[in-house]
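Replying to the earlier thread about multi-chain prediction with a worked example.

Input:
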Amino acid sequence: MYRARMHVLIAPDSFKGSLGAAAAAQAMARGVMRARPDARVETIPLSDGGEGFAAVLRGAKAGVERSSRVTGPRGAKVDAAWTLIDNGATAVIESAAAVGLGLVSESDRNASETTTAGIGELVGEALHTGATRIVVGLGGTATTDGGAGMAQALGIVFDGASVPVTGARLASIRGVDATGRDARLASVHILAVTDVDNPLTGPDGAAHVYAPQKGATAREAAELDAALAHLARVVGDPGLRPGDGAAGGLGYGLRVFLGATRVSGVDFVLEQTGFEVALERADLVLTGEGRLDAQTAHGKVVAGVTARCAAREVPAVALVGAVADGAESMYARGLTACFSLCNRPMSEADAVRDAAALLEHAAENVVRVWAARAT
Amino acid sequence: MYRARMHVLIAPDSFKGSLGAAAAAQAMARGVMRARPDARVETIPLSDGGEGFAAVLRGAKAGVERSSRVTGPRGAKVDAAWTLIDNGATAVIESAAAVGLGLVSESDRNASETTTAGIGELVGEALHTGATRIVVGLGGTATTDGGAGMAQALGIVFDGASVPVTGARLASIRGVDATGRDARLASVHILAVTDVDNPLTGPDGAAHVYAPQKGATAREAAELDAALAHLARVVGDPGLRPGDGAAGGLGYGLRVFLGATRVSGVDFVLEQTGFEVALERADLVLTGEGRLDAQTAHGKVVAGVTARCAAREVPAVALVGAVADGAESMYARGLTACFSLCNRPMSEADAVRDAAALLEHAAENVVRVWAARAT
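Result:
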């Protein structure tokens, strides 16, 4: 098929600690336009459901940002941003915005005495606006409470536990009473967005795998694992579904207390942003993220983009901060090529600082190679 | 034109301090073959006339290496390698192999008390083998003697100067007597290979520009400049030709005492290695060197390769250690694209150590982009 102008679809994740997805996409777009001023360039900033998830959806769907004062992970109030899209029909909540590890100082980290009550309060705010779908992006929380704090904030009573319930206090629960659960929940659809496969408990569970990075000692992690197992017994659901262990068991809580459906972050974002429709027009796709490695294949933006490009036979080139060992496994999944934005030996600090200019330069060079091939 | 297999011509310079040109070409070739096992790959290691010049010609033309014991830059004897190509008809001498800065310890560096006598002795060896063409690659010498030491070793008498003559001793010369000049020189063609444009003396001359990096103080550099100017007055040739100032004035000496013709190193190597013939078969050229910057345009391998590729409209991609500021000026000269071999933030030491593997990886990715474009 003859095309007078090349059409480049630019769809990166954020470059963690350096560039947001929109800024990364814009830098790549500048590079493409420098290489081929006549190119058609379309940018779709993406997210895997982690940091930047709500911002990406807000940008793609002309959403509105809201802010609510809710209970933070350690009990003190925090101002948490959330988002309304689809003309208010859908609320998007990033769990880290209300109960994130980043809201707790290093010295105040505590995997046991933290609560997801703030998530429940945000869900309540969303219900109040009349949203009929509530999307909760999981990940990056300071909590390990199995989502009990959230449920409590929505009217579910944990017999024997104080308010707000925390990971440690789960151990004293004697029963769960959902009689007083917010009645509005019956008519909304709740999505739990995560690409984490961990179950609620056990060696691969929320406590053993994630509590240590939230400040828990090995002993505290074991106690939290026992507390989550106790919660599961009281609830009557063992928490074995993939994703139950996401965000300190918030995945479990969303499912058993709010009837949430689990969705993949990358899949959800790709669908919501209209990526596949845009892909039909593309000759070449540029994607990227901070780091490409053996884990990229699992629920990362580059993997999701690559799979869809491969299915349509559109070449996909990843521009990343670091190409780490194992990245070449992505070739077999359809990735055309990957390049680091580093254009000389440099420190990570320099790469982070100059990321926008370097990314522009990398995109320019890739498109120059692409465009130079005689057709 | 339909081609079932892509043909890639790989023609890099050495990566200074890291990979020789042949090793760099082989690493790139491995990457191309990984990307496209069916590709036709041709390697032509190149040189700009500096370090690796003789090795490149020896490799390209099935030459023979010789070694001769000659006077080193500080007077002590050294074993200097040189090369015979064209079945012995052409001798190739790298000035640095006999009188190079690398032959002098840091503490023993002396821009004034150093001599090119060893070059004259190598020319004598070449004459002895019956070579009818002698090619001298200039650059990297420890000397600033205007080539007088070389001339003296070939029978030219510098009245008033001791043996061997050095840069400092030029000041006492009262006359030049070429009566005893080696008679065999009359029937050979001597080529002085350099891309340096400096004249013999003055602010852009051999002493002011290069003596400081050979150990001279500003005062010594000024004295050497005056000594070279004195030599030029005695000889009766002001030394204003571009290249007269190469290798501490050895360019001047080769011209005025031996009747040498100056040639560009890149041009000479490209011609001798059959680059242009190979280019006729190529769909894509990969070149490279240690560093791409604003100086690349001046007599560097990447510039020479790029110019020839541009003339034939064959895309040329440079893979380099570092893309430095100003490198983008090469786009206007026809360079298709440039990529660093660095695939993540890394130190220069790591880039040097892992250069072969990184270069292979970079070549693989460039060819993957190239080959992915639907034709």
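The interface with chain A takes residues 283-284, 315, 317, 321-324, 331, 336-340, 342-348, 350-351, 361, 364-366, 368-370, 372-375 of chain B (CB under 8 Å).

Feel free to reuse this layout for your own posts.
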